[in-house]
Write the structure tokens for this entry.
Amino acid sequence: MKYKLTLTLLLFSTATFAQDSIFARRMVDTLTSKYFWGRGYTNDGMGKAGKFIAAEFKSYGLKPMSGKDFMQPFSFNVNTFPGKMEVSINGIALKPGRDFIVGPESRGIKASGNLVQKDSVTFIDAENKIILTVKNKLTWSVSQEAADYTSIEVDKKAIKQLPATISVNIENKFISNFKANNICGVVKGSAKPDSVIMITAHYDHLGGMGSATYFPGANDNASGVSLLLSLAKYYAAHPQPYTIAFMCFAGEEAGILGSKYFTENPLIPLGNIKFLVNTDLAGTGEEGITVVNATVYPKQFELLKQINAQGNYLIKVSPRGKAANSDHYWFTEKGVPAFFFYTMGGIKAYHDVFDVSKTLPLNKYNSLFKLMTNFITALQQ
């Protein structure tokens, strides 16, 4: 493709179709609410979120990518924690998520025992197969496997003495073939419908750890889904020469599984995708954005930088090379040109219970929207 960057393009305005932070805040508030329970594996969190996004697509006027349904079902194994989540150290009860997290691969167990120190941060209850680690920061994740031991990480600020005794009551449930869905919609192109620009974001997060604690996932990735929905609403009202496709992937936190499944079972020919833009962690931006694959596609990256400079949107657009750190990766591996961008600066909450809507600034949301719409326009020149 040849790209033409003109003053007219750079002055392209979306003022007639306001996409402001009010919309973003409402979407992030919604997606991080207790109802969606961290968009994960218990309380049907991911299922509820997928249905919500599909309903949004339909209300905007998007069409399913294939058939009559916005859903692309797939499945994978996952270890979950739907019930008891109790840990006491030295007789003091700790708070799930804030004071401790359980290793995502852990087995469930109800036991009490003594801890033996192995090094400065590791303590073992060998009889009950419990490994306790003291950490400066707690960061949770998702496991596709279940181990024959239980690992627990404790925030060092939550304990005043070296751990000597432990009491746990943890319930896990390993689910084979957990059912998930990618959410897939399109706005058909007016001139070249077989040429596709794809916008993607993962909508899943970590879900719940026990029956009383969930991980809201405001920045990761309610922020990216909010931006995608804003773009979907805009392009539904303003069809482009190319088809604009929108993908919300499940299973990203479990190993970028939804995008892998789509690239192996595409609902549109991958060769028709002229460029893909993946957004994750889009809630800040004080220090600009980092663009993964910038060094792989230098012409498109230079175009993005020119548009940003002309519009004075973000303080910095930083390049990064290839990385398997989000849903763009499997498309790149299949030969689809793709960028993944994430915002820099601001809050540091990540994969923890503190990634909440009320502290997510969304202060560069409008700038990101304008940068993306101008970039997508330029890609069609």
Remarks:
- The domain at 7-79+176-379 is CATH 3.40.630.10 (Aminopeptidase).
